[in-house]
Design a protein that fits this description.
The chain is α/β, with parallel strands linked by helices. It has one domain (about 5-245, about 255-270): Glycerol-3-phosphate (1)-acyltransferase, CATH 3.40.1130.10. The chain has 11 helices and 7 strands. The protein has a 7-stranded mixed beta sheet with strand order 1-7-6-2-5-3-4, sandwiched between helices. Strand 3 (about 105-110), helix 5 (about 120-125) and strand 4 form a beta-alpha-beta unit.
Length: about 290
């Protein structure tokens, strides 16, 4: 069976991006990123983050990505306190979108499997990132201790955690369950908690969508200070943050629909882009099959 024309065009676009960007990425990694990752203590985190961000912004430009951000300057850039960022997760590009949008140094907690990815692992090292092995409890405890230690140190950046644990395969519905155990980790740091909602990243590398521009959204919520959450248990906090994120993503969907309805995308591109933005609860899809 022949592949639809738009899928072929998407594969050609992604192949072109790889061919153009790979030499640039190798240059950055050979001369800078590997060195930063091997001896991060020799270089200020601001310098490491700035270079990685420059590399990532070049890639996103080739991928034709536009980023719309709300609350970043008010709630994160101008906040003098360290923070644990609780972020929803839609696609493999989520951390790249975040770094490109945010000039403030931020590191990330990643699953242990990412350590096997050559380019990605060196970037994580350069940004003081951490890994968590969900299959080994003792290593998880060590990672949590390190998060708490870094939260109290001026030498390390704030940490972003993708709270759902893995990518949401159903962006047309609500976010996945927010892990109360992860929220507990944030509590242990006794730092600000900043919730972050994102949307749109799932379109960028999916063969289903071949668009002229890919719009991705980031919304930063008001920081929750330790004195505000000290009397709220982590299960309640996880539920509150999850509800807050879903409500904001529903608003983003309306903005996304407005954007693509008035864009210069092809009719097919508009149709595919709008299909997911018109929210479809998963339970409704199940009932329909029955």
């Amino acid at each position: 069976m022949k592949k639809p024309r738009h899928k072929i065009l998407k594969y050609l676009h992604l192949t072109g991006v790889v061919l153009i960007y790979l030499p640039v990425a190798l240059f950055y990694h050979i001369f800078f990123v590997y060195r930063y990752g091997k001896h991060p203590e020799k270089y200020p985190v601001e310098k490491r983050y700035k270079l990685v961000r420059k590399e990532i912004r070049g890639l996103l430009k080739l991928l034709r990505i536009d980023i719309k951000v709300e609350g970043l300057e008010e709630y994160y850039l101008n906040n003098p306190n360290k923070a644990i960022l609780i972020i929803s997760h839609q696609a493999i590009l989520d951390p790249l979108i975040f770094i490109a949008a945010c000039p403030r140094p931020t590191s990330f907690l990643s699953k242990i499997e990412v350590k096997k990815y050559p380019l990605a692992s060196s970037v994580i090292k350069a940004l003081d990132g951490l890994y968590i092995d969900r299959a080994k409890l003792m290593t998880q405890i060590d990672t949590i201790r390190e998060i708490v230690k870094r939260a109290k140190s001026d030498k390390h950046a704030s940490i972003g955690i993708y709270i759902e644990g893995h990518r949401n395969d159903h962006p047309e519905g609500d976010v996945q369950e927010y892990k109360a155990g992860t929220i507990k980790t944030a509590y242990m740091t006794k730092t600000d908690i900043i919730n972050v909602a994102n949307y749109g990243e799932f379109r960028v590398v999916s063969p289903r969508y071949h668009l002229k521009r890919y719009v991705c959204y980031l919304h930063f919520f008001k920081p929750i200070h330790p004195e505000e959450y000290k009397n709220i248990d982590n299960f309640t906090m996880a539920s509150n943050l999850m509800k807050e994120t879903n409500e904001e993503i529903d608003k983003i969907r309306l903005e996304d629909i407005e954007y693509y309805e008035h864009s210069n995308e092809t009719k097919r591109g508009k149709r595919e882009a709008l299909l997911v933005s018109r929210k479809t609860p998963l339970i409704a899809k199940v009932d329909k099959k029955k």
